[in-house]
Amino acid sequence: MKAKIIEEKCIGCGSCVSLTDQKIFDFNDDGKAQAITTTLSEEDINLIKNAMDYCPTDAIELVENDEEK
Ligand code: SF4
Questions:
Q1: Considering the domain 2-63 in this protein, what is its CATH number?
Q2: Cα angle at 14 between 31 and 12, to 5 degrees?
Q3: Would the pLDDT of 68 be above 70?
Q4: Three-state DSSP class for residue 2
Q5: Distance, CA of 42 to CA of 8 (rounded, Å)
Q6: Under a CB-based contact definition with an 8 Å cutoff, are residues 4 and 59 in contact?
Q7: Distance from Cα 1 to the centre of ligand 1, integer Å
Q8: Ligand 1 near 59 CB (within 6 A)
Q9: How many angstroms separate the alpha carbon of residue 59 from the centre of ligand 1?
């Protein structure tokens, strides 16, 4: 699995960045969140699922590594 941000939906609130201790998401130059790691442990996936619950715009997705979106 890998985390993916739908940039058009992200409003840059930062919840996902802080909820994952900046291990998985960080901000890009546009102030939007971006995934910074593609190697995810089970714990990381749980953190991401938690962040998905808190994302106000449903901008976070978990996708299979080979899934092109
Ligand atoms: S929680 Fe959602 S809206 Fe907020 S920065 Fe992360 S992806 Fe963007």
A1: 3.30.70.20
A2: 35
A3: no
A4: strand
A5: 27
A6: no
A7: 19
A8: yes
A9: 6
Calpha distance 21→24 (Å, rounded): 8
Nearest residue (by CA) to ligand 1, atom 4, is 13
How far is the centre of ligand 1, averaged over its atoms, from the C-alpha of 55 (Å)? 5
Q: Pull the structure tokens for residue 59.
A: 């901008």
> What's the pLDDT tens digit per position in 16-40?
999 999 999 999 999 999 999 878 9
pLDDT value at residue 65: 80
DSSP secondary-structure letter at 31?
Answer: S
Token digits for 34? 């971006």
> Does residue 6 contact residue 63 with C-beta atoms inside 8 Å?
no
Name the residue ranges covered by the structural domains of the chain: 2-63
Q: Which of 8, 11, 32, 34 to mutate to test the pocket of ligand 1 (most atoms within 8 A of CB)?
A: 11
Q: What share of the chain is helix, strand, coil (3-state, %, to 5)?
A: 25, 20, 55
